[in-house]
């Protein structure tokens, strides 16, 4: 019942009119095998459904694994954000890349939505 209530709160938050914040189910594990098992457990528990936006990743190293949860970008830890951008290509001249001015002019909600859209994919 708790998983169902948590999912309902997140879906309500996701569809709360024009001020909605983009959210995704966030899941981290130490290996691809453990990640697949954790995903299957979340599906079975009803925490996530096929087609929901999901951010899944392997986080090796000594850092404590964050709990599986629904989250927006401000809810992600620094460790999670670093893991998300670790595969991104570095850019020395951000101010001269196309679209960088648009990013600076985005509202917090629009930036959050863009980050979630770029990192999340539909759950298989």
Description of the structure:
This protein has 124 residues and is of the alpha+beta class. 43% of the residues lie in helices and 14% in strands. Helix 2 links the parallel strand 1 and strand 2. The protein starts with a helix and ends with a strand.
- Averaged pLDDT, please? 76
Count of individual helical segments: 5
The helicity comes to 40-55%
Total beta-strand segments: 4
Structural class: alpha+beta
Biggest sheet descriptor: 4 strands, mixed
Indicate the overall shape. globular
Low-pLDDT segments, ≥5 res: 88-98
Main β-sheet, spatial strand arrangement: 3-1-2-4
**How are helices and strands ordered from N to C?**
HEHEEHHHE
Euclidean distance between termini CA atoms: 23 Å
Cα radius of gyration in angstroms: 16 Å
Kindly estimate the percentage of residues that lie in beta strands according to DSSP. 5-15%
Short account of what is shown:
It contains 5 helices and 4 strands. It has helices spanning 2-14, 32-45, 78-85, 100-105, 108-119; strands at 24-29, 53-58, 69-71, 121-122. It has a 4-stranded mixed β-sheet with strand order 3-1-2-4.
Summary tags:
single chain, 124 residues, alpha+beta, four-stranded mixed sheet, 5 helices, 4 strands, 43% helix
What is the topology?
Elements: H1 2-14, E1 24-29, H2 32-45, E2 53-58, E3 69-71, H3 78-85, H4 100-105, H5 108-119, E4 121-122
Parallel strand pairs: 1-2
Antiparallel strand pairs: 1-3, 2-4
């Amino acid at each position: 019942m708790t998983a169902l209530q948590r999912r309902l709160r997140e879906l309500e938050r996701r569809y709360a009119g024009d001020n909605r914040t983009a959210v995704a189910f966030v899941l981290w594990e130490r290996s691809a095998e453990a990640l697949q098992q954790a995903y299957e457990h979340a599906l079975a528990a009803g925490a996530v459904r096929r087609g929901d936006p999901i951010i899944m990743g392997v986080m090796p190293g000594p850092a404590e694994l964050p709990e599986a949860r629904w989250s927006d970008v401000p809810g992600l830890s620094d460790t999670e954000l670093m893991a998300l951008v670790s595969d991104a290509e570095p850019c020395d001249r951000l101010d001269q890349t196309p679209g960088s001015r648009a990013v600076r002019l985005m509202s917090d909600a629009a930036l959050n939505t863009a980050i979630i859209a770029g990192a999340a994919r539909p759950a298989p």
